[in-house]
């Protein structure tokens, strides 16, 4: 697919021609085919899944299960290893809530200061509850997670390693394959937060050999409200469910119950049928464009912008060596929210704040930062408009 045509697949750019959207790390925009799939389901179907024997219900069930099948292929998992959740946060909480049953006093859980709150907080709470020890991989001088530093905290007591794949603030990629290899030698499980990598690079869970992985549909051009929890089948089988209700139970009597096999054991209640069906269109779009094209395009824009931004006096970039197309920056002595408001006047959408990763802000010694994050629909024109708007913001605050 021609990268120049990609922007035209996203209807917002026809409605709002001026918009420069550089906040895809928060949520990506939605292509027409995803919106069409959503409205098609609501207009033509609307039935529940897995329950009805009538035609309409089986059409909905088949469409829903097709997304599972295609997602499994997308990450090289088995179909019954793909659980639908509400999002990355939900997926990561489900793992912690269920796997905490295997955590005992004195066990160690490794995480990092680069984590989004939804990767770190569930394990912080498990550590408090189970009297386990939460251990942080020391970051290197660039604030990256390295294999060398991981080795320093891995011990015979390590039971869980919960790390981000790509930092949502700094765009650094964790060397997770090497880390998983080392963690497994200690019989620890590895949980990967793939919220920021899923739409930017190919992921093969079998090759990385992670035990669990979480990601959100809304960051991969799909609808909000849906996420995925991948888990190795043998682990999912032994883990207890955390939500109880319809469609997850095998047999129940007044006193007790048995559960269905994974993934259904972890999918209690009516799922977000329409959004799961529409997510399939987002997966197909990514497949059709291909990660080679996506990665080349995003990296070109990233390097182009980085070079221009680096030349702006008074701008401080915190991640010159980012592996992925995220630029974290501040204008010296100006609050990031003030800068973001000025950029908005030029229709440039960037994020300001701690990005739900307060430990990263602390590590950078900044109360908050600005973040420009790129996706497949961005253009060189977007990069130029960002650079111009940053210069105008700097001048507005009379920095130079
Ligand atoms: N982890 C990372 C790295 C993220 O960037 C995000 C979203 N900002 C999340 C987890 C949480 O995702 P969600 O809000 O979709 O649950």
TrEMBL record:
One of its GO terms (molecular function) is cysteine desulfurase activity. Residues 20-386 form the Aminotransferase class V domain. Gene3D superfamilies: Aspartate Aminotransferase, domain 1, Type I PLP-dependent aspartate aminotransferase-like (Major domain). Its EC number is 2.8.1.7. The keyword Transferase applies. The keyword Transferase applies. InterPro entries: Aminotrans_V_dom, Aminotrans_V_PyrdxlP_BS, Cys_dSase_SufS, Cysteine_dSase, PyrdxlP-dep_Trfase, PyrdxlP-dep_Trfase_major, PyrdxlP-dep_Trfase_small. Pfam families: Aminotran_5. This is Cysteine desulfurase. The lineage of its organism: Bacteria, Bacillati, Mycoplasmatota, Mollicutes, Acholeplasmatales.
């Amino acid at each position: 697919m021609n990268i120049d045509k990609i922007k035209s697949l996203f209807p917002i750019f026809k409605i709002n021609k001026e918009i420069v959207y550089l906040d895809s790390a928060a949520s990506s925009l939605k292509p027409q085919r995803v919106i069409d799939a959503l409205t098609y389901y609501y207009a033509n179907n609307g039935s529940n899944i897995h329950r009805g024997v009538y035609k309409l219900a089986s059409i909905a069930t088949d469409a829903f299960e097709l997304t599972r099948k295609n997602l499994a292929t997308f990450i090289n998992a088995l179909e019954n290893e793909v659980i639908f959740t509400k999002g990355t946060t939900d997926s990561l909480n489900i793992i912690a809530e269920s796997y905490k049953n295997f955590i005992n006093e004195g066990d160690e859980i490794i995480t990092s200061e680069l984590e989004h709150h939804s990767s770190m907080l569930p394990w912080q709470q498990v550590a408090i509850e189970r009297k386990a020890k939460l251990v942080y991989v020391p970051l290197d001088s660039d604030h990256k997670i390295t294999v060398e530093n991981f080795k320093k905290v891995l011990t015979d007591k390590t039971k869980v390693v919960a790390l981000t794949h790509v930092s949502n603030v700094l765009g650094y990629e964790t060397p997770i394959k090497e880390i998983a290899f080392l963690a497994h030698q200690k019989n620890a499980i590895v949980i990967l937060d793939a919220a920021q990598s899923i739409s930017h690079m190919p992921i093969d869970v079998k090759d990385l050999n992670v035990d669990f992985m979480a990601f959100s549909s809304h960051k991969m051009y799909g609808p909000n409200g849906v996420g995925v929890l991948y888990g190795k089948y043998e682990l999912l089988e032994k883990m207890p469910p955390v939500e109880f209700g319809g469609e997850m139970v095998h047999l129940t009597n007044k006193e007790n119950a048995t559960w269905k096999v994974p993934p259904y054991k972890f999918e209690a209640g009516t799922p977000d049928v329409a959004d799961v069906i529409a997510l399939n269109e987002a997966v197909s779009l990514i497949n059709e464009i291909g990660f080679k094209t996506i990665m080349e395009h995003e990296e070109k824009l990233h390097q182009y912008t980085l070079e221009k931004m680096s030349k702006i006096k008074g701008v401080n970039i915190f991640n010159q060596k980012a592996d992925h197309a995220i630029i974290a920056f501040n204008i010296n002595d100006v609050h990031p929210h003030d800068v973001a408001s000025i950029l908005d006047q030029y229709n440039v959408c960037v994020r300001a704040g701690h990005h739900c990763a307060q430990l990263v802000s602390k590590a950078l010694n900044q109360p908050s930062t600005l973040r420009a994050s790129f996706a497949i629909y961005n253009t060189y024109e977007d990069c130029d408009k960002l650079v111009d708007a940053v210069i105008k913001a700097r001048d507005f605050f009379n920095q130079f």
